[in-house]
User: Which sequence fits this backbone?
């Protein structure tokens, strides 16, 4: 009886799954410069570009929103002169509105801010777009995807943090996979053109589970820059 009940539930679950729309999209790899060699930053950008990475993920930290300080617009401006890659700027700062125009002028292509860092997320999305960039919105592991409900139609990308932001080399938080899955279904069911980026603790193994859950932009810092063969490491993230 118990077995029969289990079976019935399984079928019901499968049926539910079938009603969802599925979208296929190629995986984009975004190496995080946080784990690059800062004495050779230009060379380390070129290395990952030559290894096939589509984006360069640039982590900006203010020592207040996160307990670390990292990379201002002048670094973006210098790197823009030597790279054609898409510059994916991740702002982990309070008052992100103060910095949008400077990063846009420095050569950012995508600017992502944290929903936890502003009272005016909608206005900020408009500001990023007016500055000529794609707009992304980031959520910490402890923030629900329901905060996106009134914003999802307007953003180009959602960045789901899979570690608590601030440092490279942290362990992937497993229960973020359910969140990726739920967001993926919202996007697919509503036929929205919104990328799902994941950031933190991504390696060949965790890449597999985030891709299966629906993420299509994968940030990886320590896994890529710590690898002896960067091309193989990037390849392994695509599955
Ligand atoms: C974390 C940063 C990440 C970080 C990821 O606060 O936003 O981009 O560099 O590093 P790994 O891939 O080493 O976890
Ligand atoms: Zn990041």
Assistant:
């Amino acid at each position: 009886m118990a077995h029969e009940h289990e079976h019935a539930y399984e079928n019901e679950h499968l049926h539910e799954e079938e009603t969802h729309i599925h979208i296929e999209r190629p995986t984009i790899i975004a190496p995080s410069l946080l784990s690059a060699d800062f004495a050779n930053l230009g060379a380390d950008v070129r290395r990952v570009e030559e290894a096939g990475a589509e984006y360069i993920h640039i982590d900006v930290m203010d020592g207040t929103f996160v307990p670390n300080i990292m990379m201002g617009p002048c670094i973006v401006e210098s790197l823009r002169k030597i790279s054609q890659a898409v510059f994916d700027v991740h702002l982990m700062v309070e008052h992100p509105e103060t910095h949008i125009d400077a990063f846009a002028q420095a050569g950012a292509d995508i600017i992502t801010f944290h929903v936890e860092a502003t009272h005016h997320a909608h206005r900020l999305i408009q500001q990023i777009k007016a500055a000529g960039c794609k707009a992304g919105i980031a959520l910490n592991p402890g923030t629900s995807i329901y905060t996106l409900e009134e914003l999802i139609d307007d953003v180009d990308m959602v960045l789901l943090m899979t570690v608590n932001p601030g440092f490279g080399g942290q362990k992937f938080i497993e229960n973020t996979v359910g969140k990726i899955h739920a967001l993926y279904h919202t996007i697919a069911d509503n036929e929205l053109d919104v990328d799902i980026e994941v950031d933190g603790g991504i390696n060949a193994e965790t890449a597999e589970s985030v891709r299966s859950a629906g993420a299509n932009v994968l940030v990886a810092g320590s896994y890529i820059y710590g690898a002896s063969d960067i091309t193989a490491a990037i390849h392994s993230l695509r599955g």
